[in-house]
Amino acid sequence: MSNSDVHIKIFNDPFYAENGMVISIGSGAACWVVDPGLPPQGDEIVAFIAEKGLQPEKIVLTHAHGDHIAGIDVIREAFPEIPMYLAKGEWHMLTDAHENLSSQHGVGTVVKNASALDLAPGDELSLDGTVWKAFDVSGHSPDGRAVYCESLKLALVGDAVFAGSVGRTDFHHSDGERLIRNIKENILTLPDDTTLIPGHGPATTVGQERATNPYLQG
∠ at Cα 66 (109, 116), nearest 5°? Predict the structure, then answer.
């Protein structure tokens, strides 16, 4: 299996251009919703799922900053039984606008349907025959996660690492040294041809970031 077998539809909000996603495999109907963000992302995701005849199995959150969680209630209103996966250390952020940083920007995002299942390092999630392993990429947020599928050579890395950059670490719960250490230990150790899809901006590869990302040299 290669990453040509995965279908990823990205939805961007007009404020932060956050990459909310719907992911499915091959011709299968099963899908994940990943990091549903600010309007109109939630409604667009629900409409896309209906249009394509997909069946959402999980909401997967890389972290719980406001721009990555604002669409959760819209998704769960449309699909009430869908489970949500988020590292336990960030559960409190779902219902606290200060902790999820949205209050700093006058949004005040609070998730009403905030029940979640833990996503711990080493945990594995399945999607239509593929297996995705969770890695610790905390530092930008207190308990951030990436999920990696070896068979697809693909990782969803949230706001840990971007094409040519890394996540901000000037927030009250950020830790820059921890972020760089986790990226080097848990992302740059993946094969060079692994595609990285970040929470903002274009996709990149492990090899590209190892060779050229100025924050990851040395």
Answer: 90
Residues 102/71, Cβ–Cβ less than 8 Å: no
Q: What are 178-205's pLDDT values in tens digits?
A: 999 999 999 999 999 999 999 999 999 9
Whole-number Å distance between alpha carbons of 187 and 194: 9
Angstrom distance (rounded) from CA 182 to CA 128: 28
Tell me how far apart the alpha carbons of residues 188 and 172 are, in angstroms, rounded to a whole number.
26
**Rounded distance, CA 187 to CA 207, Å?**
10
CB 205 within 8 A of CB 164: no
The SS3 assignment for 206 reads: helix
Q: Is the CB of residue 120 less than 8 Å from the CB of residue 166?
A: no
Q: E strand or H helix at 126, and its extent?
A: strand 124-127
Closest CA to 121 of 68, 182, 73, 80: 182
CB 159 within 8 A of CB 62: yes
For residue 134, how many other CB atoms are within 10 A of its CB?
22
- Grouping H, G, I as helix, E, B as strand and the rest as coil, residue 110 is coil
pLDDT tens per residue across span 119-170: 999 999 999 999 999 999 999 999 999 999 999 999 999 999 999 999 999 9
What domains can be seen in the chain, in order of their start residue?
Answer: 3-216 (3.60.15.10)
Give the contacts of 51 (CB within 8 A, at least 6 positions apart): none
Nearest 5°: the CA angle 50, 15, 23 is 35
